[in-house]
Amino acid sequence: MIKVILVIHVILAISMIGVVLLQRSEGGALGIGGGGGFMSGRSTSNLLTRATAVLAGLVMLTSLSLPMMDGNRGDQGSIGDEIQTEATTEAHAEPAPPRAPIED
User: How many CA atoms are closer than 13 Å to the CA of 21, on its beta-carbon side?
Assistant: First the structure.
């Protein structure tokens, strides 16, 4: 279940980035507000603002639900501990052979 929520969280975060980048900026440098179209002016602004607010709320909801669900798995440590353990195991697995000194 955690993996499903994590995938949804990533999709929501990427969608929110896209919606924010579509909005018209104050300076007009990054916004896609040029020209007319079926959505222009206030309707686009209101739609993108509402979409940003909804996506932000959903990202916050998934952000809070992930650690709460992960806390139910007991005292197994964190992902960082697992990565550090794997790196330590690989480092102690096989020592490098000694090198001969380089002579000039």
Answer: 6
Output b/e per residue, 34-46; b: 16+ Cβ within 10 A.
Answer: eeeeeeeeeebee
How does pLDDT run across 19-49, given as a tens digit for each residue? 988 887 665 545 555 555 555 555 667 888 8
Every domain of the chain and the residues it spans = 1-13+45-69
Q: How far apart are CA 68 and CA 70, in angstroms?
A: 5
Q: Which amino acid is located at 12 in the chain?
A: L
What 10-19 contacts at long range (C-beta under 8 Å, 24+ apart), as own/partner pairs, is 12/55, 12/58, 12/59, 12/62, 13/59, 15/55, 16/52, 16/55, 16/56, 16/59, 19/48, 19/51, 19/52, 19/55
Locate tokens 């794997």: which residue?
A: 86
Helices 42-70 & 2-22 angle (0-180, nearest 10)? 160
- The reported pTM is 0.54
